[in-house]
Amino acid sequence: AALRDLIQRLPKAELHIHIEGTLEPELMFALAAKNGVELPYTDVEAARAARTNFTCLEDFLRMYAAATKVLITEDDFYRLAQQYLARAEAENIRAAEIFFDPQGHLARGVPLETVIRGLSRALAESPVEASLLLCVQREFGAKAAAEALTRAIPYLPKSVIIALGMDGSELGHPPRNFVLAYGEAAALRLHRVAHAGEEGGPSYVREALSLLGAERIDHGIRSLEDPALVAAMVKSQVPITLCPLSNLKLQVYKGQLEDRIRQVLASGMRVTINSDDPAYFGSYVSGNYEWVARIAGLGPDSLAALAANSFTSSFMPQVKQQEGE
Ligand code: ES4
Ligand code: ZN
């Protein structure tokens, strides 16, 4: 309980959170009823139960995509982000860099403007220092990724979009396929991050760093399988955004995850702790810190160091100043 209190009190930044992954079953049902969308569950409890046994990333992505069908109006996106930010504030998260997946919404006929305006309104109202990262979904392909970013250009000057990210299905979609979109992002002066080394091996991390110019690696847990890569990442201190309970629930790591996390923490890489899709994996950020603290035997100093990493790894200059607070 003392550790839990400490984690709660620590000011934290969250750098790996998918806003669509914060859609709790209650809000999903409320929006489904309002919008006349049919759900394949009898009630909230059944929907929650369905979120407890994923076998792989693909399995999860199917359910995640199906749930987003309830998000239709600007206000739906506003409510989604508003709920997450209220939750984040309650956990003493001072800053959040939030992914959104425009391609899935566009494919359903929801305009980009609806998504960005709804999310931005919630961000503007929250005391949490927050910004958006536009994520391209790898399964839509390389051309579609570049197009999605191009479509967002009109909104960049007046929005809080600070970066391009890449998520979705990893295996078979190596980072080298997406150099066009990342080149476009660089030209637009956007920061660049990428999911890599979640289900894919260390070569995906290497490519994200060397070919896409990624400034932060999302997940990155499989970097450990390549000692030369780890050495380079220790030297450059490029941050990785670990999402331990996501990895556990999606069973993406085939060995002993606890051992792997302990090795990552001991490697000297700059590690941050995040929740990924908390409405699906059963825990928000604090739960992820608690799990890591338990399996790695971390005390107050190590936990404070992880929280400090979350600020120094942020892209928001005003947030970096909160480091060590
Ligand atoms: C995701 Cl856990 C994870 N991996 C890849 N893409 C994602 N999108 C939302 N959650
Ligand atoms: Zn993710």
UniProtKB/TrEMBL annotation:
The chain holds residues 56 to 380 of 388 of the full protein. GO terms for molecular function: adenine deaminase activity; metal ion binding. Keywords: Hydrolase, Metal-binding, Nucleotide metabolism, Signal, Zinc. One of its GO terms (cellular component) is cytosol. Its EC number is 3.5.4.4. Its cofactor is Zn(2+). This is Adenosine deaminase. Residues 11-321 form the Adenosine deaminase domain.
